[in-house]
Design brief:
Strand order of the largest sheet: 2-3-1-4
Number of strands: 4
Order of helices and strands: EHEEHEH
CATH class: Alpha Beta
Radius of gyration: 13 Å
Helix content: 25-40%
Largest sheet: 4 strands, antiparallel
CATH topology: Alpha-Beta Plaits
Distance between the termini: 32 Å
Number of domains: 1
Number of helices: 3
């Protein structure tokens, strides 16, 4: 199952740790605070628990949104790699 994980976390230290956790689970960064990839339901639950632990009592919002393969393949995307 494809997924989109997005977050809004104000604490820089925690935001960096959340980003690292997403990368540890093999997700790809698609925006500054957004990752996508494929994870089993078990790994999705593990990751969200880990992120919740990292967030602790700090303010923030994290959403993990599963997307069916059919819908994922219908996405529209523009990528301009300048550099």
């Amino acid at each position: 199952m494809h997924l989109l994980l997005i977050y809004d976390i104000t604490n820089d230290r925690i935001r960096t740790k959340v980003s690292a956790a997403c990368e540890d689970y093999g997700l790809d960064r698609i925006q500054f605070s957004a990752f996508s990839g494929q994870l089993s339901r078990t790994h999705q639950e593990e990751l969200i628990l880990k992120i919740g632990s990292l967030l602790g009592e700090e303010s923030g919002r994290v959403q993990l949104i599963p997307i069916s393969t059919t819908d994922w393949e219908k996405r529209l995307e523009i990528v301009n790699d300048v550099g």
